Amino acid sequence: MDNTIQKPKNNILTVIIASSAGTLIEWYDMFLAIILAGSLAVNLFPADGSSHFLETLAVVASSFMFRPIGSLIFGNIGDKIGRKYSFLLSLILMGASTFLIGCIPNFSSIGWAAPILLLVCRLMQGLAISGEYAGAVIYVAEHAPANKRGFYTGFIQATVPIGLLVCLSVIYVTRSSMSDADFNSFGWRIPFLLSSILVLLSYFARKKLHESPVFEELKKAGKTSKAPVKEAFTTKGNVKTMLKAIFGGNAAQSSVMQTSLFVTLFFMQRAVKLEDTTVLLITGVVTFFSAYFYQYFGALSDKIGRKKVLISGLIASLILIPVSFYMFMKIGNPDGLQEVHAISTTATLQIMGISFLLSVAGAATYGPLGAFMLEIFPTKIRYTSMGFAQNMGNGFIGGATTFVTELIKTSFVVSAALTPYIGLAYPILLVVIAIIVNVLFVPETYKTDLTTEENMETSEH
User: Where are the membrane-spanning stretches (predicted)?
Assistant: First the structure.
């Protein structure tokens, strides 16, 4: 009897550690190419006098575009065979793709095959992360007590900033250990190659896990879906529910996160003209101190509801996005300098503080989202439905934020004073849409029982 009581505690701890570690590594892999876009542009594109930065961002963003397709593939596996097998496969695919990016020869060696190989690897990464996130969140939630789903899935949400922090740390250490010339020549490959070690460790940890109890119960009852993809799109009300999830949370959440992390990073490098080491320091410190809030807001949503936390984060983001970027420029480059320059410690701390507020707002939109997403879909088609909605919103629409903001800046002629900020129209638009959808159409979900007959089978929404 004692063993029976103790087992769930041991299980949930193991589940959280193994699931979170794997997801963290996959986000690390996913972020590397974004942060090192400048190095990829120099090495894998022609040296013809153009930076090729926008083209590199387009290739990097391709992984987000491909994620909805991957979600259907992995969702089908997760709903038919099991959650565990789906995210084991995604982990191996991600690790292999990341390692291979580090092995791509330079453009000078193989010509246009270099960016094409980068594109192929990024598409494979997009497939992998599409199966990873939904699988990890569902796996943890289906083990968790009903009143702590936000708390436990919050650890999965926190893997985004922690994965970025690990990524920044590895890049910073690698860059600091060699000259700029050596890093741009071969050092940029090291963070990609190191990923293989982390992936293998995580794989063996996950391999020891058992299937989720909720899915096992469904499987024993013979109620698993024979055609999850078909049912996800034909079950009455489910397409409408997926649209609510896409435009009520995922698209805006991803855009806010991309804006607070990567658009901010590129803006400080390319518009404010700060030194790379200063930008990495600001991003790293802000990421470290904001990581806790992803899990905090997930836990808070267990007490007051997913919608209240999510809408609060969206409103805060709507205010902070334009204000933050204006202040970055005002503090970091008040004289409009066109060359890279240093700033004072006081200015650095001020930018850190503003960036931290924006990141916390992003954490409020993301913290409760995992629990919210899985609660609105029935167990039978949960992996496929949640995966598609998450990857369409988070990947295809919100994931394009870094590319779209850069594209808008280079495509629209506006006044010199507005040019650095015009790209922010994209994340702001998505946030406005999300607030409207949440207020008018999205139900509260935090009291949903995942084990009821209605939730185990398909249901109307």
Answer: 12-37, 57-75, 87-107, 113-139, 151-174, 186-205, 245-267, 279-297, 309-329, 349-374, 395-418, 424-442
